[in-house]
Write a structure and sequence with these properties.
By secondary structure, the protein is of the alpha/beta class. The chain has 17 helices and 16 strands.
Amino acid sequence: MEPRIQYAKTSDGVSIAYATLGEGRPIVFSPRVFGDIHLYTNVDYRPPYIGPLVERGWRVIFYDGRGTGSSQRDATGGDLNRRILDLEAVVEAVGSDRFALCGVASGGPAAIVYSVQRPERVSHLVLVNTFAHGAEYFESIPSVRVSRDLRHIAEDQWEFYTLALANALNAFSDTETARRLAATIRAGVSPRAWIAQRDALEQIDVVDTLRSIAVPTLVVHDRADTIGDFSMLASKLASRIPSARFVATDDFARAADEFMREGEAPPTKEEQLPSGTAIILFADIVDSTALTERLGDAVFREKARDLDVTLRSVIRDNAGTPIEGKLLGDGVLAVFTSARQAIEAALACARSGEDADLPLHLGLHAGDVIREDNNVYGGAVNIASRISGLSGPGEVLVWETVRSLARTSAGVRFEDRGDQALKGVGEAVRVWAVREEA
């Protein structure tokens, strides 16, 4: 996904770059020190929450703070008041009267203060691995403490400083990822601007503001974050906010989505997943274990998440229903009522996998499914997965019945692969490879 970057003007005349992705209700992210657009558009180190929230039907709005990334770089000062001015400019430019607000890491304090100043605008406040007292934050998290301990060399030895910081933020787990992150930091902010913002963050103290928060608030300890263990800091933050909810999770996007949708009416009959006969698509990355070893775990996860979002969009564009909770690595599962549309979706998914350098196994089956809790079950789902596993990279295999349903309407030809024995299936299944017409 490529965000559409636009510009907002703050009340003190600074140009702030912001971007939106997805459709639906808005959720605004208050950015970290080196800017969220800048992180996202660096293909090697993307925030992991944007794609999953877009997939769950949110319009995600994120931006680079002044002096960072694509925003006005000669605008100095990262103190709390100026951070709030940046946030105000973005939400006014977006034009949403009411939105969810999320503060991650150093973006938390501005989100806290804005939610108190403008509670009529904020539907929900979500605080992730963040803080109310800057000095406590820099003391409690060892990887963050590196930025303070090495501050005296930051300007003169900027490359060494950013590499040391990036390794600490990445838990010293992947030196190549740390090298790319360090380069991303250097490209996104000057050493002087970084020092000014870091020092301003350490001076922040909004602890007394917490008791004035009146909007529904979720405090998250995101255990998937490599920066450090935020469990104590997050639980203390939650205890200071009236009626705040606290959760520790490895899937922040899901936790936030469930919190922000709590109490909503269930989907209408037209929105529910179908029970009965359906065309079932199963897609999975070819040799994901080898790719993980070659690319590194963090890079692979980011590429897979982005592809997952793309595939789900392709499926919806072809009138299919992607199943929530099934992510690449476990496989993408979808159901269709039309064999022709299912084949068109599968071929488009194959092209998306090739474009992402993550080729896919793809299989289609037809059979009865059972709907339960926004998921589908049944033997036909298992067979679709088995057929997928027989396909070559980027190849679409279909069951005989799918071919029969689509052979006069799909505009493709079918190559007979004969009867195939499938694990866990008593009888052999005849499958066909889909070939696009030249």
